[in-house]
TrEMBL record:
GO molecular function, a single term: transcription cis-regulatory region binding
Assigned keywords, A-Z: DNA-binding, Transcription, Transcription regulation
UniProt name for this protein: Transcriptional regulator
One matching Pfam family: HTH_1
Natural source organism: Caryophanon latum
Signal sequence region: none
Family per similarity comment: Belongs to the LysR transcriptional regulatory family.
Limits of the HTH lysR-type domain: 1-58
Domain of life: Bacteria
Presence of the UniProt keyword Nucleotide-binding in the record: no
Length: 287
């Protein structure tokens, strides 16, 4: 039995359409049909009931589907473990991380950690801030890094970093006053999962005529600011590189009480690998 047949069967079962399955698998439709026929011959039963262009699982197909998923998952895990062993890894660490952290403070820390712990095979899952917790809870990740506050009793979590939120403007602007800046530029909002609702209300009370532009990605926000499309309030660590490279600048506040931003670490099961990473991560942030 070829494991490619199993993957084709699982996708075809989800789509209930061989053409759609072929598009998802980047195969021709005849190749999909061939894989299914060979699997059916191997199992000596029909897995699908064919009605014109549509297909539905037979009773045998329903029974075999969870078995196929288990077999494929075990095959993938085993292959991954074997390749890790071949390349000198004897331990594994999966990190679920929010995009804001993955694109700012994590790269330099992760590079140093991987050099310091060369036998740990590191995997990174970049997911929505709110999904980081689910990755850890479901065992898909060993460590979670997020900007959202954690309340799940089954998780162990710590505040790894609490930092200032700053008003960020294009480097070439000559405006140094908060009020004039918010009059001249749109305020780019909702690029952070926590503080924007309260902060925006404060800004609108202080500056009722401020115009806004909602952008839900930090990297896009920074590019927009560089191009003069707006200004925004961002955690300092998210813009450190652009500040150093003189692409962006900080404008001091006058009427707005700026919030802080927290970075949380989360674990469910303590292992030598999670302990090593968290100690390294926290030490790097403190330095």
């Amino acid at each position: 039995m070829d494991f490619k047949w199993l993957k084709t069967f699982i996708v075809a079962a989800q789509c209930e359409n061989f053409r759609q399955a072929s598009e998802q698998l980047f195969l021709t439709q005849p190749a999909v049909t061939n894989h299914i026929q060979k699997l059916e011959q191997s199992l000596q039963c029909a897995l699908f009931i064919r009605k014109g262009k549509t297909v539905t699982l037979s009773a045998e197909g329903h029974r075999f589907l969870p078995i196929a998923k288990t077999m494929l998952a075990q095959y993938d895990d085993g292959l991954q473990s074997f390749h890790a062993w071949r390349f000198g890894y004897d331990k594994q660490l999966t990190i679920a991380v929010a995009p804001q952290i993955a694109s700012s403070i994590l790269p330099a820390i992760l590079k140093s950690f991987m050099q310091h712990e060369p036998t740990i095979d590191v995997h990174l899952n970049v997911v929505n801030s709110y999904d980081v917790v689910h990755e850890v809870l479901q065992g898909k990740a060993d460590v979670g890094l997020t900007r959202t506050e954690l309340t799940q009793a089954s998780l162990h979590y710590d505040v790894a970093l609490e930092e200032a939120v700053v008003l960020i403007a294009p480097f070439d602007t000559t405006i140094t006053d908060e009020a004039q800046l918010l009059k001249a530029y749109r305020l780019i909002t909702h690029n952070h999962p926590v503080y924007w609702d309260d902060l925006l209300a404060d800004v609108q009370r202080a500056y009722p005529t401020v115009q806004t532009l909602k952008v839900n990605q930090v990297e896009v926000t920074k590019k927009f600011i560089e191009q003069g499309l707006g200004v925004s309030y961002l955690p300092h660590s998210m813009v450190q590189r652009e500040l150093d490279e003189q692409q962006l600048k900080i404008i001091p506040p006058t009427r707005i009480n700026l919030p802080t931003s927290k970075t949380y670490t989360a674990t469910k099961v303590v292992t030598p690998e999670t302990t090593a990473f968290l100690q390294f991560f926290n030490a790097a942030l403190r330095s």
